[in-house]
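Predict the 3D structure for this chain.
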Amino acid sequence: MSDLREAGMNSKAWPFEEARRLLKRYEAAPPEKGYVLFETGYGPSGLPHIGTFGEVARTTMIRRAFEEISDIPTRLICFSDDLDGMRKVPENVPNREALSEHLQKPLTSVPDPFEEFPSFGDHNNAMLRRFLDTFGFEYEFYSATEFYKSGQFDAVLKRAVDRYDDVMKVMLKSLRDERQQTYSIFLPIHPETGRVLYVPMKQVNAEDYTITFDDESGKEWTLPVTGGNVKLQWKPDFGARWAALDVDFEMYGKDHSTNTPIYDRICEILGGRKPEHFTYELFLDQNGEKISKSKGNGLSIDEWLTYASTESLSYFMYAKPKTAKRMHFDVIPKAVDEYHQQLRAYVGQDADQRANNPVWHIHGGKVPESRMVVPFAMLLNLASVAGAEDKETLWGFIRRYATEATPATHPDLDAAAGFAVRYYNDFVKPEKVFRAPTDAEREALIDLRDRLVAYDGAVEGDALQQVVFDVGRDRFDPMRGWFKALYEVLLGASQGPRFGSFIALYGVGETVALIDRGLAGELG
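Done. Predicted structure below.
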């Protein structure tokens, strides 16, 4: 057994914990189908959002951990429920008025408002695949429309007819009295209007596997449950899909957690073995509201990638999956810097420590070297004081601070410099508020300025930090008041970098000039 496999068998990292639980599923014998199947579900009622990505990213982390501790092959299916009826017109698409006449039609029968694909469902499926491909995920895409119409689901649908009463009994227990009167696990697709109908069944016939019902006008219809004429309600569909595909693992948000016993029991009734589950907390926007595909609130994947690397987003997804997290622009700098901190730590870690390091799970063990010799937060502050409009401006300072660094040898730093300029101009610059120093702060700033003018030591962060500290030590208690003054007077923010490191990067002479401007009230 390799050191990392042994470490994975004991690691407290959540992907390894889930992988070990999944491995116990087959401790008696390997799966008859020859592989362990991971699945993620996607409801393409709107453009894919960052929560959808997170589900695939986290499932992939568990899959990688499983492959480290087991020799059983694996597959990952991303299943799109694109046969679902469009319940409402999304708020974040063009040509909204034209979509209203297609309400309740399957998403793959609704015209694409972007006029790029055969249907709205096809458009959103393509966006999902594009997002997932950007991150290099290995997955197989399944469309519910194709799954139903191709006959792949027919055997389980017939079983649902045979065991209709048993499945209905499970569902009726979870419904209010008035809903029980009209509920059926089957949703027929109207042969003429193409709409998904929510109507009671007059007959479910196990002899020829048909259903009989009246449409909304009172006309009676009889349809086969096979061939895409009928779809299952979403809760039965969950369990039926697990049974049809023999799914071993699926994760979902905690809003599904109360339905887990329903999904599991229906899977078992339909001849399947319930999969292992992992329930994660939901993503929230800056206002603490749940991120919604139809609203388009919260960060999108494209928005994150405008300001930071794919790896930093994966890092954010790894951390504390059972804790609700706000997905807004303020979290990006912290995620970037913490990711690189973990990269730097990985180099000197043993197998046990590496198994617990997020970057192992992000990169599947093929962990790159960090070349970020300047933190992202520091780049933001540098962009601020330099008024940078492009990354070349930042490189003028970076080369002086790290003489060996170039865009070619430090591509992650080069990319981060570009991201920092963009992030600064879009989010930091509009919020900057400078203030004048108090009398005590003015005295301290003059002292710091004079000491920097006379400074002839090494232009190095620790040495310069000591100079800053010496100025404030006898004047401020607690010392954080001194650093807060530096940030608010010189940087226009209430928080900021380790100031000695900032001076080393920005330059001693440049910092003297910055203090002069701050004292003269010229920064605001």
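The chain has a mean pLDDT of 92.
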